[in-house]
Fold this protein.
Amino acid sequence: MRQWDWSVPSSGVYREVVSSMPAGWANESRSKRTPPLLFIHGLAHGAWCFEENWLPAAAAKGFPSYAVSLRGHGGSGGARKLSRTLLRDYVHDVMQTITELPQPPVLVGHSMGALVAQLVADRYSPRGLVLLTPAPLTGSTPNLWHIAKQRPASAGAAVVGRTLPMTADQLFPGLDPGTARRYVSRLGRESPLVQYQLLGRRHIGPVRCPVMVAGTRSDSLVRERDVERTADAYGVEPAWLTRADGSPIGHDVMLDLGWEQALAEVLGFITAQVMR
Amino acid sequence: MSESPLPWAVIGAGPHGLTALKNLLERGVNAHGFERDSDLGGNWNYHAENSRVYESTHLISTKPFTQFPDFPMPDHYPDYPSHWQVHEYFQSYARHFDLYDHLSLNTEVVRCTPVGENADDGWDVTVADRVTGEQTTSRFAGVVVANGHNWWPKTPQYPGQDSFTGEIRHSAQYKGAEVLRGKRVLVVGAGNTGCDIAVESAQNSKSTVHSTRRGYYYNPKYAFGRPSDQTADLLLAMKLPLALRRIMFKTTLRLTVGDFTRFGLPKPDHDFFETHPIINQQLVYYVGHGDIVPKPDIDHFDESRVVFTDGTEAEIDLVIFATGYLAHFPFLDDDWLNPTGDHPVLARQIFTPRFDNLVVSGLIQPDSGQWTIAHWQGVLIASYAELMRLDPDRAREFYRDVIEQTHVRFTGGANYKDSTRHYYEIAHQEYLVALEGDLAVLEKVSA
């Protein structure tokens, strides 16, 4: 029963959807095609963070790849109403994007986007569900507390409704300062209501598709135990993403040094578990 | 015995057939659909022989509850989409979930025959290719009947009707306003179709008389700047009791439209929520402009005139009977669907007490949008079919329990007026709660 969706539905806004298509994919018969991938970004990010490396790289491996900017993020509309935006508006944006895809996709969500992906999977059966450094279903209050101990000013800003400040060394510690600065400057605002919603616990029903849960061992935003808890909830072993030299990647696994290895893990899971 | 299990047959590719097919396939239950027309969409496939939508048909409920919850209508659709948009929506649903490959178009089901006692060994389904006429029969584990209940016209018979000199047609044969031009028109029936046609007649014909058996509540599509069905759902979400919701709706109508009897419309002889809602903002407007003349029931026809029960009469060129439809299952025996009187009575509007592998989807008339319910009926049927395969004993147990509740109706506390129109009427949220409970039982069992 989704009474609020029926009585006070989300309004539609312009959606930025970027994509990279492998050559000849559309001409394949449906049973032979690789499934489309739909990437969902995290807090204050946008479709751009996947567009940078992963979309073209995944397309080169034969996967039609799409990334959507949730409302108020990246190139999508809705920035002026961001302060009134709720998680279910993001779910609405992803559902709208899905209906435009030629067939059911694998959902790949990052951080807050992984929570959105799980809420979407609660009503729609994707081909697979990939949760990267996922915001925990049990609520992010401990994470905020953890951040408060290290950076009280950041946590304080989030508590009073400003966008949680995130720094290059939290997100992509392996990048050179110039690139890192460029990415940080692209971070946008987050809905304060959504940030508050992230603190609370969420319940979702059983998921019937293959699930991958991946984290990194050096993440100060989503800690190892959060990743393990999410993996437990789906009865899978967490995957730990590392660079070529074995060192852990930063929170933004699609941007930090080592993004190639992280993507290879994700595509490996899809090939082995989803395309069986 | 353990070769690949028999598939399920789905009869009809309207919204209920599509959701049944999609959910069966999604749960790994092999299934195949049959559609007599050259495209899917059922009633919403305007050009189909048995489609009953007309040129101007729009939804009378808004997108949020009308759409499939796992495949929402596009943002660029309006609150109340047209039948063209609805048909495109069903097509994109079928493309997205790859249903065309599991669907035989131009294929009419002519006969379903149970195999073994109580169809224990499945069903032989005989279909006819509508192009070649060739008939073939194949065996299925079960049958989902989703052929719709708004296509077989119900036409009343009044004294003198046969010698009436004007034209009589059922709304089933009404596709657009051309037939109305220059005519003196009588529209019979105050269902949503009757009201739509009365309004179109007011805009296009020479004169319009609208005959109804009783007074109704004509609800606006918008009130207080919001679609009214969303407000109705909001009040339900707030768990307001029926009596309070009645007062609020009546007050709203009183404040926005005013007193119906001032317009010469009869006072409703029933309380709010006791008849299927009529959603028509324009009818009262045209009555107020004198372009629709309301009349009571017809007494008899007299050559070119129609005489009403109040003794008044009118010269009429064209009568349109918007008197509704009856459920009709030409490929089944009459007694298989548990008819009491003249219509099937099913548990949850889905399960037949006679066969545990013959289910019906879409035999509902909700006081809301419909296809959220179509989705959940499809999920329930698929979950049940899956369990029949995985754990037949538990499936039988579920079936027995649900059949014991065949008499349970989902009225939301209201007493529906006795009419063929309310045979399948349900209060949508109460009904969904019941399906939710059934699903919890099925899923817990299958987990």
Notes: The domain at 3-274 of chain A is CATH 3.40.50.1820 (Rossmann fold). The longest helix of chain A spans residues 259-274. Chain A has one domain: 3-274. Chain A has a mean pLDDT of 93.
